[in-house]
Amino acid sequence: xxxAVDNTQPAPSVxxxxxxxxxxxxxxxxxxxxxQVDSQSLTTVAAIQTLTNSVNVIRTYAADNTQPAPSVxxxxxxxxxxxxxxxxxxxxxQVDSQSLTSVASIQTLIDSLTVIQNYAADNTQTAPSATDYVxxxxxxxxxxxxxxxxxQVDSQSLTTVAAIQIL
Length: 167
Hints:
By secondary structure, the chain is an all-alpha fold. It has ten helices and no strands. The longest helix is centred in the first third of the chain and has 19 residues, at 45-63. It starts with a helix and ends with a helix.
């Protein structure tokens, strides 16, 4: 609890969480859990357990897509913003194909996908960069063909990695 309020305190260990009554945290998930306990100021067993369960759903799915797919609430519990029913399938596909397991990597994915989808819907929005396409898993985009790809994304309203990759 003290770490959630003041992150200059020692970070909890796996055994600290177990002693507190939180299950499912291991050495692989500890850093992400601690990061979210701090950033979300989580102090109750229930809140930390909900976070841990969501972390484990995302990590397990990223490693093995035959496991249950993360939900919008799993990502929200994990501290990722911008995921909704409209982009969940696309995000899950990229979490799986890129094995994304950290808040930072998934948030970067969401941010880039949002830029692309917003531009596809309205070309007065910020145009996607080559980096945005790379982040979402589209290959073969560079400064030489970026303008042409953006033109096709706009004119065809392409919003999925699969549709853009076909270009």
